[in-house]
Amino acid sequence: NAGVTQTPKFRVLKTGQSMTLLCAQDMNHEYMYWYRQDPGMGLRLIHYSVGEGTTAKGEVPDGYNVSRLKKQNFLLGLESAAPSQTSVYFCASSYALTGEVRGYTFGSGTRLTVV
Amino acid sequence: GENVEQHPSTLSVQEGDSAVIKCTYSDSASNYFPWYKQELGKGPQLIIDIRSNVGEKKDQRIAVTLNKTAKHFSLHITETQPEDSAVYFCAVSGNTPLVFGKGTRLSVIA
Predict the structure, then answer these.
(1) Closest to A106 (Cβ–Cβ): which among B32, B43, B51?
(2) How far apart, in Å, do the first and last CA atoms of chain B sit?
(3) Do A90 and B46 touch (CB under 8 A)?
(4) Do residue A48 and residue B1 have CB atoms under 8 angstroms apart?
(5) Residue B64's beta-bridge partner residues?
(6) Helix count (H) and strand count (E) of chain B?
(7) What pLDDT does residue A6 have?
(8) A58: nearest CA in chain B?
(9) Which of A104, A110, A111 to mutate to probe the B interface, most B CBs <10 Å?
(10) pLDDT digit string, tens, across residues A4-47
(11) How far apart are CA A77 and CA A33, in angstroms?
(12) Fewer Cβ in 10 A, N or C end of chain A?
């Protein structure tokens, strides 16, 4: 049981290039999230999804787009990478039971450097 | 939106001593308060959580206490061991995604 899998684990981009980060979960979780982690800043929410075909903006959505075409996958896209997007990106998933969110599970992260 | 403050940012303790990390939050509607441990190069892992209908929860050497009136909650680690060294994050949510504190780097000195 893999849980939450992120690919790639590392990537170096040049300013202006584009890329897509893939997150896959095998727990049949309804909710999925993308966070970025920067030194001294904790984890900040970029975008999230409450179900297949739905997405919503988080705290720091600018410069990113997302798609949730299948329940198990959540894609994070950078259309034109900037050095400010150098960060470690974490995907997470969760489910709800009797109205309570449960089972937040994180992937191992993608370390992205934009030069 | 929700604002979570976490203190201290760094904490060093001698092996066997206790460690306490505190978080405050702003939204009185928040009802879920987890704590995560993050080791170098890995994703955050849930170590304990508490919901708003409970004041304290224990799991072996780890405990979390919640004061909803004052809007703060704390992580307590007793009998610390070198393997407890990591970054710890508190988080808060209501009907919205988790909002995280900025983290506490705990160092347990043998």
Answers:
(1) B43
(2) 41
(3) no
(4) no
(5) B57, B75
(6) 0, 11
(7) 97
(8) B97
(9) A104
(10) 999 999 999 999 999 999 999 999 999 999 999 998 889 999 99
(11) 13
(12) N
